[in-house]
Amino acid sequence: MDFDCNKAGESSAKHCSSICNEGTLIQANTLIHCGKAKKWNSLNKFNNPESSHGSLPRVNDPKEDGETGNDATASECSVMCFTDLPSALVCEVLARLDPKGLGVVSCVSTVLQTLATDHQGWKKFYCERWGLPNAPIGPLVPGGTPDGRSWKALFVDREFQSRSFMGRFSVDVLRGHNEDVRTVYLLASANLIFTGGHDSVVRMWNMEEGLLIDESRPFGCTIRAIAADSRLLVTGGSKAFIQCWRAIEGASHLFHISGNGTNQNSEFRLWGHEGPVTCLSLDSTRIYSGSWDMTVRVWDRAEMKCVQKFMHADWVLALAPHGNTVASTAGRDAYVWDIGNGELTTIISNAHVGNAYSVARTHLAGVLFTGGEDGAIRLFDVSEISDDENIKPAATWLPHSGPVHSLAFEYPWLVSASSDGRIALIDLRKILTPLNSSKRRFRVKPFDPSTVEPPQRMLHGFGCYLFSVGIGADRIICGGEDGSVRVWNFSEALEIEKKAQALRSLRQENRMRRRKAQVEMNANGRRVDHCSVAMKRNPLKGDKSVTWQIKRPISDKVKS
Description:
This protein has 2 domains: 7-96, no CATH class; 172-495, YVTN repeat-like/Quinoprotein amine dehydrogenase (Methylamine Dehydrogenase, Chain H, 7 Propeller). The chain has 8 helices and 32 strands.
């Protein structure tokens, strides 16, 4: 996201600005021209060392001591600036702005630029869209970011990267599995890709180079689910255990999944399910697992014990946690459970015609996405607790001709993989709209379901079933029945687009130059000498020995 500011720190003397906040109008007049320009001294309390508000930064005018009539002028004008307000009120007003508004405010003056850039609203904007960034191993500075940059810088970079998925890309193919790849997981913060499938081996790849880093021993079962963060890697399969690896501090690639020459305490298993584990997920304090034993189990990461169990009426096929709730699909129904009290808050009956194979959630609001056997992708608004089982979808997409086996969300893109061998990308910025409420920042925009736009992009060319898909800041990965893993790299899309735009501008400029030369020659009543025009555009630099070749075929017949 780019914020343009022509003259930061300058304000117009002919206008006044106002900020309206839920019925409260705060009038903030800009500096009024009272007398000569040199007497436009600071008329607010930022420049007054005796200011009662003293919590905001003070900007001194170097001419303040030399002007004696400023106090009288200020009293006559009775001007009050927005920055004269108490710092708590200023921060509260800034907290009600959206990212674009906060960026515009930072261009008004140096004082507001400091306040808007360091405002904690940027952290809120980032976490609402992408969640907390994965922290590295080791202590973190309280309130800081993992790489030490400001939250505004993180937000702007991530928003800029989200535009790349409509640009050009390159495709890498990772080969190593002997049978179907049933699950893939992208850990972009560590540049790692994890894959597993029917060959019962978990493999770890380098995302940038596409090289195999490490692989586990065979577990004797199909690997159906993988989840990871910077501290823990978990996998599940046809056998009823969850295989776990702890990250090793100081290791170049976080995990040693082969187990050779490492501490045995870094690898362990969780037992409790009575059937194949089909889905896994992690957050900072819990592990979530779903199984064909019709249960979703919640595990405490500190004690590695099951602390909650949710019973379903059918096999659990997918799950997605968000905050203190977890959504799951079993059969053709979708559920939302409250982890705190263990109660079912929402049930969506017959979400699909056939089984609901996949589910995804956002960091924004109570929005649930499901993909099913009917090839449909549906959006449900579950922000309010409802006893009604006949919840209607807010939007429906039909991009596939086969079952949708996997969904992944990375703001603002929803990605789906299907057995028809295609991947669909859906942009949700027009559907999720911001609110002015501080408690609930986003909601589903009211619209006619029949007018929903189709997916913005479709990726083709697989010719095989696709079972799993993942998305990062500028990567999309998928695995299918051919045993290969494909990685779409969009990291250079924006740079390529900039170069293409510059080339188009150059061509347009050349066309306009030639057209102008044509008009001038016609105005002078002369015939256009194309050779002269070419000579002007391509000077010979004094080398007159160069012969201009005529681009016409030479005939074998010569007239006598």
